Input
Amino acid sequence: SQITHPRFHYQGFVDGRPQLAEIYRTHDVLLAPGPYETFGLGVLEGLATGLTVIGPDAGGTGELLRELPEPLLFSAGHTGSFLRAVQLALERDPIAESQAAMEIARQYGTWDEAIDRQVRTYETLLTGDRPWDRASIN
Output
């Protein structure tokens, strides 16, 4: 919240889909600083709307962002690395970033398809239909 830049606005808590849709429509960059997002669905949604996404080099966010031609990753837990990624994002062409983001998101399909893949993954883990031995993880 202390960063000052003409293209930066700290949003704070977002309450509801209409507010979120307006934020996506009126902004260029999504900061996804949490290192523990498992499937990266929030990041995927940001990419689908054409936002430049900055995220940690860990978890689902890191995996997803590595698919971009020039991902804006920072070392998880390192403030200086995060701030450098923010500065780099503000220096980039938002139109080129937007096109790359939407192309990656298209490969994942719709929100419903992404959630379906997530549910299938959990079902696979619960039913035991997996390539490793259930006893080895208990």
About this structure: The longest helix spans residues 111-127. The chain has a mean pLDDT of 86.
